[in-house]
Amino acid sequence: MWTKEECDEVLGKLIDLPEDKRKIFFYLYGGEPTLSKYWEYIQYRLIDIFSDRELFIQTQTNLSLTEARIDTFLKTVNELKTDQQQIDICSSYHLGKQSPDEFIKKMEICDHYNALGLCFFSTEIGKEDQFIEEFNNLTTAYPEKVKLKFTQIENLTDQRDPTYNALLEDDYLRGDDNGESLEYRYFIRKYPEFRNYLEEGWNFSVDNEILNYIEVKNQGIYRQFKYMKCHAGRKNLVIDHNLKVYRCNDYYYSQIDPISLSDIDFEEYLGNDTICLSCKCTDGLDHTKYR
Length: 291
Known about the structure:
The protein is α/β, with parallel strands linked by helices. 33% of the residues lie in helices and 18% in strands. It is globular and about 55 Å long.
């Protein structure tokens, strides 16, 4: 959690973003970013600081915040922002956290203020009937907004989980990744229509075949390449909870080359492509890369 002083330090530094950066995408995520009492404050200030630029400010949230809070925020922010500034509430749905009716009400509030982003619905084989029922509830309400996120469990074959034991006896479901993407293989085989709920726009050419990002990830293709140069080095940066800066999320996950925010010179930092030092690319595949 950033204190207000730390929020102001971040905001004060962002003022130095070069003038040629006319389109800026801010992404607030965690953890759960709305647990911060300064979640609203940061966005109000960003809108003010960059009033002359095109902004897209997205929050990745489980929508655990109250209806009153999200309504107040969106009403206020709509009065502050310009037409070239967009607020986007991107949500994650997990079984058992809140009812579909509660979740849909909050989606309706976002929709009312033109701030409803995509909703990523997590699969759960152990509660398949509930998953299908609640997934259908959300897709009935917002068919174009709900996308599937297939749960991945690393080294599933070693966990002896009774939910998956019988399924792991199936060679196809077990796969060659120790069962990590078993849920993807299970649900796509059983419900091929689920392919209609993959996030559009995240498509890649792989050996002359067009694959969605979900397929690239769950087939482990993203692990098969080592990129020598990546545009993420000059088009992207991550600021963590300790005010350290990284080239991308993969650098953050692996703690590669952290730099204190106070030491960053944006002109220099965003000036060049970088040689990729990560062993796999998970979150930056949309950035141009060279092998």
